[in-house]
Amino acid sequence: MRQPAGRSPRRSGGERKPREERWAELIEVATQIFYEKGYDGASLQDIADRLGMLKGSLYYYIQSKEDLLFDVISTVHKDGLAVVRARSEIEGDPLQRLENVIRGHVEHTCRHLVPTAVFLHELSSLPIDRREEILGSEHAYQGVFRDLVHEGQAAGQVRPDLDPRLAALSILGSTNWVYRWFRPGGEFSPEQIGGEMAEMAIRGIATDEALRSRAS
Amino acid sequence: MRQPAGRSPRRSGGERKPREERWAELIEVATQIFYEKGYDGASLQDIADRLGMLKGSLYYYIQSKEDLLFDVISTVHKDGLAVVRARSEIEGDPLQRLENVIRGHVEHTCRHLVPTAVFLHELSSLPIDRREEILGSEHAYQGVFRDLVHEGQAAGQVRPDLDPRLAALSILGSTNWVYRWFRPGGEFSPEQIGGEMAEMAIRGIATDEALRSRAS
């Protein structure tokens, strides 16, 4: 269950369960409204209206609209990062682990389309200190992909002339872009997209030798 | 030189050169301000202020802020589409032409970062009829990539199990994403990014046989 991640949200003790449920509902509605109207276009009044609450009651949970955006973005970022980190640590050679990471990232994106879209569109609406609080000092997400490419080079599985950062950005581009065109119940399933994207990415960076031993 | 593309912009005869120069300057400033403040956050007053004009004088060129957004987006889309279409028609086998298309697309994106960002962020701010007027009924841009993948399959150069639309979306994702991280004068040049992305994409979709004959 989600916990408030805003800057010192106002909470008191007692009635723990209902409060947390109410918070989860608030975040869900805020995510949807930021998605529909954009962060600048969305107001606390819109959010209160959809929840059937008075706007003043929102201040029981947050200090500002920015607290809600911070929570939406930090939650989807933290959850996605946990997925790719966990998969990068499963046993296997670097290309097997990268394949697994790509599948996980695509499936997570497809299953959390709306908060992912808010993350990718509205990150720049947060002040720089809160952005850095989420992303970390050195792009943790990108680092998972870059490190696996680098490990693959050390293991002779990835073309040595390739820049690991450029490879990571290329893979993140194709997989992140999914949030713009994927539709649940559409032509392709998350697993199918993840599988095909992983296959294209792995073949795109692998040495001829790694591809041969992979096929056999 | 750019021509007004807004919905019946108000223009009269005479003094052709200065008017067109003024229009180009107006579009350049509008692009920059939409980029900095977002379309919703930008006002005609902001644009007039930066041009050193009275806001009322803008109505000599346009009927609304939307006319400016329409022009910014339709121009960068039309120019980019012309680049990839021209390259897709240069002589060569399908993979050679696709490689050329990818390089052209990446270089165009890197050289027109600001209008590309406005296009990708603000397209949904246009009403649906004007969006369709720009994109065409069937995603012309995506079609160039998809058709080349399909031709490559017919020629035995591209893996037959790959869905051409999924391949096109993967390539467009990695290459479009460049607008989010490329910085002029940074670590990578547009040509280097275009070359590496093309190499990864081609290897990602090619048959083993096509790769062998390409290397030799």
UniProtKB/TrEMBL annotation, chains A, B:
Statement: the UniProt record of this protein carries the keyword tRNA-binding: no
SUPFAM superfamilies from the UniProt entry: Homeodomain-like, Tetracyclin repressor-like, C-terminal domain
Keyword terms, alphabetized: DNA-binding, Repressor, Transcription, Transcription regulation
Record-linked Pfam families: TetR_C_24, TetR_N
PROSITE patterns xref list: HTH_TETR_2
Matching InterPro entries: Homeodomain-like_sf, HTH-type_TetR-like_transc_reg, HTH_TetR, KstR2_TetR_C, Tet_transcr_reg_TetR-rel_C_sf
Residue ranges of every copy of the HTH tetR-type domain listed in the record: 20-80
Highest taxon in the source lineage: Bacteria
Residue ranges flagged as DNA-binding region: 43-62
Protein name as it appears in the record: TetR/AcrR family transcriptional regulator
Organism of derivation: Pseudonocardia ailaonensis
Upper taxonomic lineage: Bacteria, Bacillati, Actinomycetota, Actinomycetes, Pseudonocardiales
